[in-house]
Amino acid sequence: MDLILWRHAEAVESGTELDDLERPLTSRGERQAARMAAWLNQHLPATTRVIVSPARRTQQTALALERKFRTLPALAPDASVTAVLEVARWPDAKEPVLVIGHQPTLGLVAAQLLSGAAQPWAVKKGAVWWLRSREREGEGQVVLVNVISPDQVRA
Question: Which residue segment(s) compose the domain that 90 sits in?
Fold first, then answer.
């Protein structure tokens, strides 16, 4: 199974008058989302299931992909590692799954899968971490396929 973690692009800072779930992308964030969406669309299989937090900034990030997606409250900014893995159906999903979510949750998910401990790993705004579950010699393994941020993608 492939699990692709995409942190929402740059959003208006917290602490504004807006509720956290209502914070939109900045104009820079819109450009980041468009660049990453173009890269993802070149690499994601057509069968990829896209699941998204209900926060406005993740919804806007998802819209840049121009694919169908499902909004799941379990992916809200305070989501747990367990909740993310459950809704992604890790490691048993038959199709690749793209999760568009938040920090620190996505960093914790990546750390848990790659190191066995939910550590506070940083995922840059707009970045993608692509993980793959596989079996080798009867043992389950997690492979880091790719890590890419918007500034590494050509416009």
Answer: 2-97+112-128+143-152
